[in-house]
Design brief:
Largest sheet: none
CATH superfamily of the largest domain: Winged helix-like DNA-binding domain superfamily/Winged helix DNA-binding domain
Structural class: mainly alpha
Distance between the termini: 38 Å
Order of helices and strands: HHHHHHHHHH
Number of domains: 2
Helix content: 55-70%
CATH class of the largest domain: Mainly Alpha
Shape: globular
CATH topology of the largest domain: Arc Repressor Mutant, subunit A
CATH architecture of the largest domain: Orthogonal Bundle
C-alpha cells in the first residue's frame, strides 16, 4: 500500500499542498523550515514517480491515500460553473492520467493549440476558481467533475 512508501509527514505535507497552502505556510503550520517542506514534497514525488504536485496529488487521491473530500473542504465547487466550454476542456485535460498533462506545454500538445493560448485560458480558470495554484485547481476540478459528471474532455479547443 502507498502509505507504507510515503512517510506520515510526506502525506501531511502533500495534504496541505492539496488544500492550497504554500510551502512557507506549511512550514509555519508544522513548525519546520521551508526547505524541509520542499524535501518532503520532493521525496513524495520520487516515491510516486511523478514530477509535479498536481501529479502527486491526483495520484494520492486516486489511490485513496488522500481524501478528496478533505482536500476540497468548504470550497464552493460551483465556482467552476462559470468556466467556458474551452476552459472546461483545458481543466479536464489537465487532470487526465493523474495530471500527466498538467504542464502548459503538455496541455498545448494534447489539445493541439499553442502554449500561450493554454496559459491564458488556465489563468482565466485560476481567476474564476478564485485560487492561485494550478495543483489546487486540479484537485478542485477533479471533485467538481466527479460531482457534476460532465465536461469530460473529448474534443479540441
Amino acid at each position: 500500500m502507498l502509505k507504507e512508501t510515503l512517510s506520515n509527514r510526506q502525506l501531511q505535507v502533500m495534504g496541505l499542498v492539496g488544500q492550497g497552502y504554500s510551502g512557507a505556510e506549511i512550514g509555519a503550520m508544522l513548525g519546520i523550515e521551508i526547505t524541509t517542506v520542499k524535501t518532503h514534497r520532493e521525496e513524495a514525488y520520487n516515491h510516486l514517480g511523478v514530477n509535479s504536485s498536481t501529479q502527486a496529488l491526483l495520484t494520492l487521491v486516486n489511490r485513496g491515500s488522500l481524501s478528496l473530500h478533505r482536500l476540497v473542504g468548504g470550497y464552493n465547487l460551483h465556482n467552476f460553473d462559470d468556466l467556458t466550454k474551452r476552459e472546461h476542456v483545458v481543466a479536464g485535460t489537465s487532470i487526465l492520467e493523474n495530471g500527466r498533462y498538467s504542464a502548459y506545454k503538455d496541455l498545448a500538445s494534447v489539445l493541439v493549440v499553442d502554449y500561450l493560448t493554454v496559459r491564458s485560458q488556465y489563468q482565466d480558470i485560476l481567476e474564476k476558481a478564485g485560487v492561485h495554484r494550478k495543483d489546487r485547481v486540479a484537485v478542485l476540478y477533479l471533485a467538481y467533475q466527479q460531482k457534476e459528471m460532465k465536461y469530460l474532455p473529448n474534443s479540441r479547443i
